[in-house]
Write a structure and sequence with these properties.
10 helices, mainly alpha, Arc Repressor Mutant, subunit A, 192 residues, Tetracycline Repressor, domain 2
């Protein structure tokens, strides 16, 4: 009688996702391979394909999870500046998700889970500007606010503004930055 060793993993999908996030954080999404993730999880090289089909499927699952995490991070914060702070915090707490979410060429952009998660995050982003007084174009204001938070988060994650932060934490620095810009905007408008 031959004895066959069986392997019971528990939650292979979550293990592969966790390993993928580690790889992306340390080496970027380009270093990701299902074969390597299977090796790290201690399963056959074909096992991850049962959950994700291929690399694009895995990255799409990471992006969908990221958008859901972003929507949750932004929820319940009425003040626009604090939504920006939460956006920056999300990026620093979830750098691998953040890297993948905004690279549509890596994803199946028509995936229903991704589309739904993106819509939830977009709704939260739009909610931040919906109640601003005297905003003639809420869509443009939303894009401006998103650009500021996203740009700051990207510069932070790529370590392009580390020296500028000095001893100040990124969240406090972002608050100061938005205060400086919004104060300048208000001063300009009041002179007109």
């Amino acid at each position: 009688m031959t004895s066959r060793k069986t392997y019971h993993h528990g939650d292979l999908r979550q293990s592969v996702l966790a390993a993928a996030l580690d790889v992306i954080t340390s080496e970027g999404p380009g270093a990701l391979s299902l074969r390597d993730l299977a090796r790290r999880a201690g399963v056959s090289h074909a096992a991850p394909a049962h959950h994700f089909k291929d690399r694009a499927g895995l990255l799409t699952a990471i992006a969908a999870e990221g958008y859901d995490l972003l929507a949750a991070a932004l929820a319940g914060t009425p003040e626009l500046r604090e939504r920006g702070v939460r956006y920056v915090r999300f990026a620093t707490d979830h750098p691998a998700h953040f890297q993948v979410m905004f690279q549509p060429e890596l994803l199946r952009t028509d995936d229903p889970d991704l589309v739904a998660a993106k819509e939830r995050a977009s709704a939260e982003l739009r909610a931040g500007v919906a109640d601003l007084p005297d905003v003639p174009d809420a869509r443009a204001a939303g894009i401006a606010a998103w650009s500021l938070a996203h740009g700051f988060a990207t510069l932070l994650l790529t370590r392009n503004i580390t020296a500028a932060l000095g001893d100040q934490g990124p969240e406090e620095y972002f608050r100061s930055l938005t205060g400086l810009l919004f104060t300048g905007q208000l001063a300009t408008e009041s002179r007109d």
